Amino acid sequence: MSVHYQITGSTAAEISGSVEAGVRDGGLVAGAALPPVRGLAATLGVSPATVAAAYRTLRERGVIETAGRAGTRVRARPALQPRQARRLPVPPGAIDLSKGEPDPRLLPSLRGALRRIDGDPVGYASAGPLPELLDLARERLAPVKAPALTITSGALDGIERALAAHLRPGDRVAVEDPGWANLLDLIAALGLTPVPVPVDDDGPTEAGLAAALAGGVRAVIVTARAQNPTGAAVSRGRAAELRALLRRHRDVLVVEDDHAAELSPVPLHPLAGATGSWAFVRSVSKPYGPDLRLAVIAGDETTIARVDGRLRLGAGWVSTVLQRLVLDLWRDPSVPPLVRAAAESYAARREALLAALRSRGLSAHGRTGINVWVPVADETGAVARLRDDGYAVAPGALYRIAAPPGLRITVSPLDPARIEPLADAVLRAVRPGPATRSA
């Protein structure tokens, strides 16, 4: 694949800056191939070492990736904001099942809480995590026993701070494959090396984690429930297997993401405490609203102290107004029934779609959460055919490293009447040709 954008520069900094400018301006789109190191060096009249250094910098910034025989390419989601959004527009009249967001119709209203919360101003000296919020969070995190707690601006912020508290660029991190796209992008942006661990319906596989630990990973990131994109949830038996492995690697950092929290229909089986360094992160975005950028992070005292210390040097603290708002929602007796109703609604939609797909002979996964994962042979073709049929879904390439292709379908926008037509459309997309609906 030829590169039409002309990369310029005579130093590593200039070359990397030129590539970044191409990504920002749209001259280099996601997935675009970059010239081989020696070829670009010859074109620019510089040494191969200079180009190699530029590419190394871009990889560490999460802008490009090396894809084996496929060469060096701009990442599917580069850690660099283009001037114009690259997301494909949803066709007129189509249903957008690609976002992975909760149904806004099922989120608790914030109007009452906003009227009730204490609006008194807070100064620098008295700002920080609200003790009453931490006390209530400690109760809600059971069965996780937390020596220390703090508050961060959402799950990804908490995960990033936990990783930064222990790791350095180049360190190897075990990640679920397929796994959360934002997390994979964060790993790249931090200059860390992802080590894929296969996932089944019960979470990361024992063999996969064992191989990653044997390969020298410094950290392991696990989704406790509602794994994105597969819906996996760590079962009691799998948790026991993984904890047994981790106890033999006490110096490894374990980060758990329990973003679904109250929306999950299955009990929590945490890994917290299996190693000396750990962080358990629970955000409020899925049950209470994505705009509530707040997460509770529990962990060992050293990890939480490092997270708090770094937070003070940057953002300082999570808004006290936001903390008061979440505290009010947690205390409001009218909210839990709404969250339970949302959990039941998501489960009904997810299970109905899984049943419809399986009745048509299609394999699909979605034990928990708001997404269903459909393995496919031709990911690009299936996405395009579904768009033509009026459905926008997320391509699996955003979520996987070595895992086979698939589609992620978010069920939160689905009304019951649309599930059977969607299953028919998925069948046509996955098996194009004369295939028809099975009985």
Structural overview:
The chain has 439 residues and is of the alpha/beta class. Helices cover 38% and strands 15% of the residues. The strands form four sheets. The protein has an eight-stranded mixed β-sheet with strand order 4-11-10-9-8-5-6-7, sandwiched between helices. It has a three-stranded antiparallel β-sheet with strand order 12-15-14, with helices on one face. A two-stranded antiparallel ribbon has the order 1-2. Helix 1 crosses helix 3 (48-60). The radius of gyration is 23 Å and the shape is globular.
What are the key terms here?
globular, three-stranded antiparallel beta sheet, alpha/beta, 439 residues
Name the beta content range: 5-15%
Major beta sheet, specifics?
A: 8 strands, mixed
Q: How would you write the strand order of the largest sheet?
A: 4-11-10-9-8-5-6-7
Poorly predicted runs: 435-439
**What is the alpha-carbon Rg in Å?**
23 Å
Query: Level of helix content?
Result: 25-40%
* Strand segment count: 15
pLDDT average, as an integer? 92
Question: How many helical stretches?
Answer: 15
Order of helices and strands: HHHEEEHHEHEHEEHEHEEHEHHHEHEEEH
The secondary-structure class comes to alpha/beta
Query: How far is the N terminus from the C terminus?
Result: 45 Å
Shape descriptor: globular
